[in-house]
Automatic annotation (TrEMBL):
The keyword Nucleus does not apply. InterPro entries: HATPase_C_sf, Sensor_HK_TwoCompSys. Keywords: Kinase, Membrane, Transferase, Transmembrane, Transmembrane helix, Two-component regulatory system. GO terms for molecular function: protein histidine kinase activity. GO terms for biological process: phosphorelay signal transduction system. Its EC number is 2.7.13.3. It catalyses: ATP + protein L-histidine = ADP + protein N-phospho-L-histidine. The keyword Membrane applies. The chain crosses the membrane at residues 18-46, 58-78, 90-115, 127-147. This is histidine kinase. It comes from the Bacteria.
Length: 414
């Protein structure tokens, strides 16, 4: 079920002003054209016949032609005042005001002798033609306002779809983060504790085997199993847990990157540069980095470092984290002196990471600068966590939150 505002075509005060301006301007322009046409035809007739025509002055004719426009526009303006739609009464009001304006036009012409010959048949013809013209002008204004409301509804629907897409992405990221944290906690907690208990039991078995000469041959096997469990617990389980949710990320990207660097081979020269602006964002303040933003920034750094060492055989890595304000964004750069990728192409894990970066409106690129290969990314920051986004059950109208701001912006533009 679509929300009601997607099909709402209520007239705004701006719509009413546009309609009245179009109607008044078009009627005024048409009346002045009639005056100009009459003067041109009369002048040509007088010059050709050699006679003369005495009648009202040009200025009087202009005023005489503009006065009926007031009688035409005023009833429509009174009808439209404060209305949110044209309604069923619009067409009768339009026809009536058109007849009123054309009748006043004819009466003024008759009263002040605008035309040399003006009988009943001329008056009826003029009233009919003028009224038809005025009705057409009114329908033109109606069509123009209808186009405005349809355009506004289309823009509103487009913004709503974009808002829905952004909200869905944010909710998916929030759920992904929750699952990652849960799995990491389970690996760190439940599984690690279970392995510790197994290790203690194996140690106890090994101690008992030492006192039994018949089973002494099994002592080495049990010790090997104990060491294997210890290795799994200390290395493999911890590594899997870090892959789901990096260690230290809850405190910020900086601590997580520091932990990542400490795990690297000491033979690799690694330097980390964090600008004051990024440090300000990274530390909890009024507008810190959201959890999803932290994770994405860390993944870019991690992918750049791992690719540089594993595939590029780099011996030196430089990591730079910077932030910009207005609009808020983060820049990530990972420099390495390893073998550059063929053609500077982004492939494999970097390609999927690039898709994710572009999904949030960012950019990711790989370039070569002299002897350094540079992985760079720019991420716009929303400044709001996924959990803070409003949820709307099916069928409930959305009238607040970020989408409300989008609607107001669209209304102002249209």
């Amino acid at each position: 079920m679509e929300p009601d505002f997607l099909t709402d075509r209520t007239l705004t005060p701006a719509d009413r002003r546009v309609f009245l301006a179009v109607v008044a301007a078009s009627a005024t322009f048409a009346s002045l054209l009639v005056v100009a046409q009459f003067l041109i035809i009369t002048t040509a007739f007088v010059d050709e016949s050699g006679g003369s025509f005495e009648g009202p002055s040009f200025a009087f004719r202009v005023v005489n032609s503009l006065a009926p426009v007031v009688f035409y526009v005023m009833p429509i303006a009174l009808y439209m005042h404060g209305r949110h739609s044209f309604g069923r009464g619009f067409l009768p009001v339009l026809v009536g005001s058109s007849l009123l304006g054309s009748s006043v036009w004819s009466l003024l012409h008759l009263a002040f002798g605008t035309y040399p010959i003006y009988d009943a048949s001329v008056a009826i013809t003029e009233i009919s033609l003028t009224a038809s013209l005025l009705v057409g002008i009114g329908l033109l204004g109606w069509a123009l306002v209808g186009w405005r409301t349809r355009l506004r509804a289309t823009e509103r629907e487009r913004l709503f779809r974009e808002w829905q897409s952004e909200q869905s992405i944010a909710l998916l990221q929030s759920e992904e983060l929750r699952v990652r944290r849960d799995i990491a906690d389970d690996l760190h907690g439940t599984l690690q504790n279970s392995l510790v208990l197994v290790q203690l039991q194996l140690a106890d078995v090994a101690a008992r085997l030492e006192s039994d000469e018949e089973l002494a041959s099994l002592r080495g096997t049990v010790r090997d199993i104990e060491l294997a469990v210890d290795h799994i617990r200390e290395h493999e389980v911890r590594q899997i847990a870090r892959s789901f949710y990096p260690e230290g990320l809850a405190r910020g990207v900086g601590p997580a990157v520091t932990t990542l660097v400490r795990r690297l081979d000491t033979a690799i020269d690694v330097a980390v540069e964090i600008s004051p602006g990024f440090a300000e964002l990274d530390i909890a303040n009024e507008e810190p980095l959201a959890a999803g933003e932290r994770l994405l920034v860390f993944r870019i750094v991690e992918e750049g470092v791992v690719n540089a060492i594993r595939h590029g055989k780099a011996r030196a890595v430089r990591i730079r984290l910077d932030a910009a304000f207005g609009p808020r964004s983060v820049t990530v750069e990972v420099h390495n002196n390893g073998v550059p990728a063929r053609g500077g192409a982004v492939s494999g894990g970097l390609a999927s990471l690039g898709d994710r970066v572009r999904l949030v409106g960012g950019e990711l690129a790989l370039r070569v600068e002299g002897e350094w290969t540079v992985l760079s990314a720019r991420l716009p920051l929303t400044g709001e966590t996924a959990s803070a986004l409003p949820l709307t059950p099916p069928g409930r109208e959305i009238t607040a939150g970020g989408f409300g701001e989008l609607l107001r912006g669209a209304s102002n533009r249209l």
